[in-house]
Amino acid sequence: MSYKSNKVKWCNYSSEIRSIREQVFIYEYRFSEEQEFDGDDNESEHILVRDPTGKAIATGRLSRDGKISRVAVLMQYRKKEVGKTVINGLLNIAKERGLKKVYFDSLLDEVRKYRNQGFIPIGSVYMEAGIAKQPLMCDIELFKISTTILH
After folding, report:
1. Is 133 in contact with 102 (CB distance < 8 Å)?
2. N-acetyltransferase domain spans which residues (predicted)?
3. In this structure, are strands 101-107 and 68-73 parallel, antiparallel, or unpaired?
4. pLDDT averaged over the chain?
5. Are 94 and 86 in contact (CB under 8 A)?
6. What's the Cα-to-Cα distance from 76 to each of 81, 128, 148, rounded to whole Å?
């Protein structure tokens, strides 16, 4: 199946982005609305992925300093390379902006997988909404990720 990803602005697509993130992070993962919508969306660049019918099914954002976050894929699309489509779109944005490195906060039990793909820990483990996370960084050219969700 083919998925279309577009770089979008929060001000124009916030309702679709918000809907996906609410379904994934608020209802499924039980983040609070205040945690999920942290005020960084206006300053970040976003990717919105649609299925062949035009339905918005996934999203993610890239901050000015290269942090990938809020990658959310609707449950029924998770094993269909949609997360990879989001990440590739965000990497293209990072390359357009001349960034050399990107980083994200990995679930602690997935750190080994990402280390094997070239990521290195860049900080201490911390807790967010009861979930242990580890900040990781990687050179964009080495970034080979298969993902479902990054918060």
Report:
1. no
2. 1-141
3. unpaired
4. 89
5. no
6. 12, 25, 11
Assign domain 4-142 to a CATH class.
Answer: alpha beta
**66: how many CB neighbours lie within 10 A of its CB?**
18
Task: Name the amino acid, one letter, at 74.
Answer: L
Q: Name the pLDDT band for 117 (thresholds 50, 70, 90).
A: low
Q: Which pTM value belongs to this model?
A: 0.84
Q: Are 60 and 68 in contact (CB under 8 A)?
A: yes
The Cα 102–Cα 33 span in angstroms is 26
